[in-house]
Amino acid sequence: MFSTSCSRHCVFKFRALTIFLLAFLFFAWGTGNTSLWDIDEPIYAQSLKDQIAEHNLIVPIYNARLLPDKPALNYWLMWTGVKMLGMNSWGLRIGSALVGALLIFYLILALKRLYGESVAVITGLITATALHSTVIFRSATPDPLLILLTTIALLSYLRGYMYLEIRSRELHISYAAMALATLDKGPIGFLLPGLIVVLFLLLRQQLSFLWREGRLVTGIPLFLLIVLPWYLAVGIETHWVWDRLFIFQQNIGRFNKSMQGHRGPWVYYVISTFLGMLPWSIFLPQIFHDLWQNRRCFLQEQAITLFLLIWAGTWIAFFTLSATKLPNYVWEAYPPLFILIAVWFDKFRRESRLPRRRGLIFSSSVLFIIGLALSIFATWFLPISEPKLPSMVMIGFPYMFTAAVAVVLFWKQYWTSAWIVLGIGSFALSALLVFVYLPPVDYLKPSQTMGKKIAALQGNAPYRLASWDWFQPNFLFYAGRGDMPIQHLQSLTELPDVLGIHPLYLVCPQAQTPAVLASIPNAYNHKNIMTAYEIYSHEYITLIQIKRRTYGINQKNEQSTSKLLPSR
């Protein structure tokens, strides 16, 4: 008996490890094929360059100023990747790919006891193949770490609540994960997980669990021991300016008013969550219908399901109230929904209940319509707003094809085969995006090419950067060296003051080139290095080299020499 149990446990761990490795390969697959995507990725990447050049990984800076956007943990993750693979897309993004694989690995291991092996594995697989997973775990941003750490914090707390024999260990893991999440993205790392736990205990009329069994006496010191050293260090080094800007501008400010134009209606996150979880979100209406039918059992008999619903609902509701809206903000609500989907699937796999065949066919039809809409949008509407994009008519084909096949399989009651087909379709869409569509789009981001041309012209010689009427953080990252700043001109009358003994590389819209050239003093000459279309501004951008004239001095020297030579 013991030998059989041990063997099964080893097989399960081997399966979990195999899925972890496959997930890592999937997320790392083609990660370095494209340049960084404005605006977030290059801001964090350039900030890391600045910190490395300053030999200071404590204070986030950007363009010679404090950068109070995010704390330090993600910079340290990117720094690790850069040390291994270099300061490029591969090095900056590989950490996020690893974090995504670790999320799936943790879900599988943590859910085994809560739901069993099959639900754990299914959850890992659908998490890996969701549409937004392809995006989020290929980006050099703090979001992947926050997703992993909040998932660990909440699931560990749930496991500690459910099982007395592992309570102390799991609750301390939860406190440590919330601390690391706070080091990654700030107060949201403990405020929302804490709110979810409190709401759950209130609904179950067990709030006293917090101070009786919640390990607050040891958990809070553990949390502070992890969080305080860096926050105190950055505060002391910046005279608490960074801390004040981070709290009042980047946290309270983002909640009260939208920043960088990131706003949306109250249904924003309902729509973005549904789209981000494709193809699996098409089954959520049926799942919620079944849960509603059993709603009277939640409070006392289905504690785990109640916790998952509070987790997803609270996270989405909180950011719905926020003025600043981005799809990444609610990814942390996906894991509980993925778990509910996996539980629903597993019921059919074990044939403990038969699914409504019409409902499954309707869900597959919705996916087919979404795929069709994607292809129509890419073929007819997208070229109107962005004519330089390559033809993307096939973008919806993976969903359309797999949905059609799934309809047939559901009709014949081949449930497992239908879900496998949907997973294959999601994988195909990811491959299509990464290897077919994104590389041509990358050519419409000229910053990397501009940086290469500047490097070829300058070698190791010093130079400076400036911009007029156009700027993307990608340009500074690829065109600059180390902590080199860029001068953003407010008026072309400032241009003579910026010029000096070293060449200046100025970037501006092509339409502004005549005005820039007219503002260059006679003591300087200029050269148009390149002009290229830029996808973000929908206009042509020109890179100009401006440097001090030297031919006049040489000419005078030649004339003086000729006067000294005897005439023939």
TrEMBL record:
Q: Give TM regions.
A: 12-30, 90-109, 145-166, 186-204, 216-236, 266-284, 304-323, 329-348, 360-383, 389-411, 418-438
Q: What Pfam family is a match for this entry?
A: PMT_2
Q: Where is the signal peptide?
A: none
InterPro entries xrefs: LipidA_mod_glycosyltrf_83, RgtA/B/C-like
Q: Which keywords appear in this protein's UniProt record, sorted alphabetically?
A: Cell membrane, Glycosyltransferase, Membrane, Transferase, Transmembrane, Transmembrane helix
Any idea where this protein resides? Cell membrane
- Residue ranges occupied by any Glycosyltransferase RgtA/B/C/D-like domain in the UniProt entry: 69-230
Specify whether Cell membrane is a keyword of the entry: yes
> What top-level branch of life does the organism fall under?
Bacteria
Topology relative to the lipid bilayer, per the entry, is: Multi-pass membrane protein
> Where is it predominantly found?
membrane
Name by which UniProt lists this protein: Glycosyltransferase family 39 protein
Question: Which species is listed as the source?
Answer: Acidithiobacillus sulfurivorans
